[in-house]
Write a structure and sequence with these properties.
It is a single chain. This protein has twelve helices and twelve strands. The strands form two sheets. Strands 7-6-8-9-10-11-12 form a seven-stranded mixed sheet, sandwiched between helices. α5 packs across α6, α8 packs parallel to α9 and α11 packs across α12.
Length: 376
């Protein structure tokens, strides 16, 4: 009988090894990101960063003995696909989800993760993401409200623009940022001559820009994404609109300059410091390893924000010595000392918002490099 039982175990072990399985339980980490579609390079950057961190952590023994298993899901940058991804990742037993890149997709998945008790960390900046009361959500970037204060001060008090045009698409992120910038600009004494909206991915923005031209703005502030921002800037210049162009943080992507072409020169971008400007050792090491692994640098700061979100959750697990997500969330939202992050000190408020922010205004040069022209 003992020999028979032993033979069964040996047979099962052999089958498991042949199938590439392990008896040890893994820590499943989901990646919800736009791996295809308009924001594909951002989504691919997020997935690459998660896989790099997972490989590094696994090489050191994993998380409290568990090896990390990365499970990606492509939300294509759409709310419908994001909702499907959330259900799929929960059904696959993930403990945490990194993503998504857009606020719209992050919000479409939030409730599903909350109901399942799955931790979610996203770079989504829409203020509404932390207003639902979901203890499962941790923002790894900074909210629209913080950027709006900086942008309004820069346009009204630093540049002293007399007439300001605001443009957004209809997404949660862009609408939230644009409305916050309008409010903060008026509060600072600025004159908003128009607030216009474009349809994302429509490519032809001539009707909207023609109307804006009639308002004679000194500046156009665009609160949408780089995939539209680059084309908007190019068409603005082609129509002879002499106004400066300022893109919000989601325009901070190499493809903005590619889409804008020669019109990219002289455009401004507002965001937190770019990856190569980060003065932290952990950032320098991560960037070095990322380039060595993938042969290129991350597409933007958002890759690093999401990597930090993953690092924070794992840090919480190790500090609490627990895989209980509620304990981990409670710990992270009450840390007295910040975790040294790739993108700076990581600390969270009770509502899941990241604490602290530091913005800069960059001017795009002829070679598409950035020059810091204002910091706060």
């Amino acid at each position: 009988m003992k020999r028979t039982f032993r033979n069964i175990l040996l047979t099962l072990s052999a089958v498991a090894l042949m199938a590439g399985l392990s008896w040890a339980e893994t820590l499943k980490v989901g990646v919800q990101a736009p791996i295809t579609g308009s924001y594909a390079n951002e989504g691919q950057g997020i997935e690459d960063s998660v896989r790099l961190l997972a490989a590094q952590i696994n090489a050191e023994g994993g998380v409290m003995g568990r090896q990390i298993e990365v499970i990606p899901c492509d939300d294509q940058g759409t709310a419908m696909a994001a909702a499907i991804c959330a259900k799929d990742l929960v059904n696959k037993g993930v403990a945490m989800v990194i993503g998504s890149y857009t606020s719209t997709c992050a919000e479409a998945a939030q409730k599903t993760y909350f109901n399942a008790g799955v931790l979610q960390t996203s770079d989504g900046t829409a203020d509404g993401l932390t207003e639902h009361g979901y203890w499962t959500f941790l923002r790894n970037s900074f909210p629209n409200s913080a950027e709006a204060v900086f942008a309004a001060n820069y346009m009204v008090n630093v540049k002293a623009y007399k007439n300001i045009a605001i443009v957004s698409d209809f997404s949660s992120y862009a609408t939230g940022l644009a409305e916050a910038v309008v409010a903060e600009t008026k509060k600072a004494g600025g004159n908003v001559v128009t607030y216009a909206k474009i349809k994302a991915d429509s490519q032809n923005f001539t009707p909207v820009l023609t109307n804006i031209k009639s308002k004679r703005p000194d500046v156009i502030f665009f609160a949408g994404y780089y995939s539209d921002g680059g084309q908007l800037r190019a068409q603005q210049v082609a129509l002879g609109i002499k106004a400066d162009f300022i893109g919000g943080d989601a325009n901070d992507n190499p493809d903005f300059a590619k889409l804008a072409g020669s019109a990219a020169k002289g455009a401004f971008i507002i965001n937190v410091p770019t990856p190569e400007m980060l003065p932290y050792d952990v950032a320098k090491d991560f960037l070095k390893n990322y380039k060595a692994t993938y042969g290129k640098l991350p597409p933007s700061i958002w890759t690093l924000m999401n990597a930090d979100g993953m690092r924070a959750i794992i840090y919480g697990m190790e500090q609490t010595k627990s895989f209980d997500n509620k304990k981990v969330a409670d710990f992270l939202m009450s840390m007295e000392k910040p975790l040294p992050g790739i993108t700076g000190p990581l600390q969270f408020a009770k509502d899941g918002n990241r604490i602290g922010s530091s913005y800069m205004t960059f001017e795009i040069q002829a070679d598409n490099s950035y020059k810091v022209v204002h910091a706060q």
